[in-house]
Amino acid sequence: MFIINKKKSAFGLIETIIASGILIVVVGALALVSSVVLKSSRQTSEDLMANYLIYEVFESARQIRGTNYIDENSDTSWDNGLTIGDVKLNFADPLIPSFGVSTEEKINDVRGIDYTRKINLKKISTDKIKITVTITWGDSKERKSAIILTNYEQGF
Q1: N or C: which terminus of the chain has fewer CB atoms within 10 Å of its end residue's CB?
Q2: Reduced to 3 states, what is the DSSP secondary structure of residue 102?
């Protein structure tokens, strides 16, 4: 007669504890990584919005200058509408932006983040205007940028 020794193989208590420990470490690491990725994504989104608000001002100033060049009115100077000092960007006419006198502008994006935009136009010479834009948001986040807008058509 043959004796068959069937031994059932199963996880013991030690193996189960080790597997649970490894699983906990992996899940914890994934949670930490996803937290860092979400924070980085939010920061990137805020920075992009600040950059957009800055470049909106620069492009609007360029558009005003360009409109002055092509309006076919000899009395219009290249910097007409580019108010010197602390200003605010206005869109009364959606096709033609303008600058109005203001110390700062409050902007709220769709996520509920409040941005403050400060614009300063300073005449450097008869053919140059320095445009400085400062965006602040959150507790202490700030983005500042400046360009020199020139009268590239000197005879204008």
Answers
A1: N
A2: coil
